[in-house]
Amino acid sequence: LRQHFFNENKDRSIFRKNIGRALLNQNNDPFIETWEINLTTRKSKNKYSSFIDFGYQKSIEAQVSRYIQNNFSFSVFEVTEKEERLQIESKMISTVSRCECCKASKEWLGNSSPKHKIVKSGLWLVNELYKTPFDASGIDHLSKVIRG
Fold it and tell me: Which residues are in the GIY-YIG domain (predicted)?
């Protein structure tokens, strides 16, 4: 959550990067090309830093933070085993992406995403979409995990 909610760095959170893409695309902002550059490596920073308006990038990062803080709430529950966490995450994403009744509103910012999978799914991600959803026993297990 820290990577998404507090740390204003698009290259450390695909969630933040996708929201920034939609904000920039919505405004036909040419900075979207710069936004796509991954600056996590020193080599990349050295190669591209002279071409990037870091002040403007910081203002986009702030817009992303405001969007997240104004439009999201988070629920957290403990899953100690990494394999189980990954399985639950995948099945949650797949369940929602396959849900016929779960559609984004017409006003949803993600509709401005340049990523077709985001627009189509109504979710801020592209991985784990349309895979194996929870079955009844999986939902029962998830309910128990959430309740502790």
Answer: 9-147
Cα–Cα distance list, 138 to 62, 80, 88, 94, 95 (Å): 38, 17, 9, 12, 11
Query: What is the Cα–Cα distance from 119 to 131, expressed in whole angstroms?
Result: 17
- CB neighbour class for 5 (10 Å; exposed up to 12, middle 13-18, buried from 19): middle
Answer left, alpha or beta for residue 58, where phi above 0 means left and psi between -120 and 50 means alpha: alpha
Distance, in Å, from the CA atom of 16 to the CA atom of 65, rounded to the nearest integer, reads 8
Query: Can you give the pTM of this predicted structure?
Result: 0.89
Residue pLDDT, tens place only, 123-145: 999 999 999 999 999 999 999 99
Taking each helix axis from N to C end, the angle separating 54-71 and 14-26, rounded to the nearest 10 degrees, works out to 100
**Count of other CB atoms within 10 angstroms of residue 71:** 10
- Measured CA to CA in angstroms, residue 28 lies from 16, 19, 20, 51, 83 at distances of 18, 14, 12, 19, 40
